[in-house]
Design a protein that fits this description.
- There is one protein chain.
- The chain is an alpha/beta fold.
- The protein has one domain: Rossmann fold (3-Layer(aba) Sandwich), CATH 3.40.50.450.
- 43% of the residues lie in helices and 13% in strands.
- Strand 1, helix 2 and strand 2 (90-93) form a beta-alpha-beta unit.
- The N and C termini lie far apart (66 Å).
């Protein structure tokens, strides 16, 4: 016999239905209250960005919070942050640990290093290598703010969260919600399979050959800077 999927009470989700046959839903805030908080969160973060003068030419870098200091991934993040800073870019990350910290560390002391922190289990405070820390309560607000102020996107090795941010950015570029700007994946060994997969989807029409040109895949830090520089120089 298949068990009902609703809850009979706290801590027993996925077990039983209550006597009434209706699930005991947890209380949530009124939508108007949440909406007001989200609007305030967005406006506060934007005001923080607008107060930075000069903001420079910001590049948003996505990557995993999990790499530890000394790992190959962490060292790559430091190299990327340093190279972007030396090329004159402002660096923006999610402000957390791992790859984000590495990128901020590489840029720190050379160019402006910004972290946009969100309330997440392993990102409760900005990493120590940001020059400017901007805090958001909501994760999607953090994403929206970073996209708004970006002039390019970089994807370093990461997991679900990084892919979520990356594909949302590509979707905004595809739909014209963001003006054209470079988007670059770094690491052929790490992202080669994903890159190859997107090409296999083209015959189905789910992704067009034109949309494949929304991003590029590089394998070195020098190639990354080269991909980003033409747009920067044209400004």
């Amino acid at each position: 016999m298949t068990e009902p999927i609703c809850s009979s009470g706290p801590g027993e989700f996925g077990r039983n239905l209550p006597a009434s046959g209706l699930p005991n839903w947890r209380p949530v805030e009124a939508s108007s209250i949440v909406s007001d908080r989200r609007t305030a969160d967005f406006n506060q973060a934007c005001a923080a960005f607008d107060s930075i003068d000069p903001l420079g030419w910001p590049i948003v870098v996505y990557g995993s919070a999990r790499p530890v200091r000394g790992s190959a991934e962490y060292k790559l993040g430091v190299k990327v942050g340093r190279a972007l800073a030396e090329a004159g870019f402002t660096v923006i990350t999610g402000g957390g640990p791992g790859m984000m910290e590495a990128v901020n560390r590489g840029a720190h002391g050379i160019s402006l290093s910004i972290g946009v922190n969100a309330k997440l289990p392993n990102e409760q405070a900005p990493n120590p290598d940001v020059d400017v820390a901007i805090k958001c309560e909501f994760l999607d607000i953090r994403k929206a703010v970073m996209e708004r102020y970006s002039r390019g996107f970089v994807l370093l090795p990461g997991g679900y969260g990084s892919y979520d941010e990356w594909f949302q950015a590509l979707t905004l570029l595809k739909t014209g919600k963001l003006e054209e700007r470079p988007a670059v994946m770094v690491g052929e060994q790490f992202y080669g399979g994903l890159h190859d997969w997107t090409q296999t989807v083209v015959p189905s029409g789910m992704i067009t050959s034109e949309e494949l040109r929304l991003y590029s895949l590089v394998d070195t830090v020098d190639e990354l800077v080269e991909e980003l520089m033409p747009k920067h120089a044209a400004s």
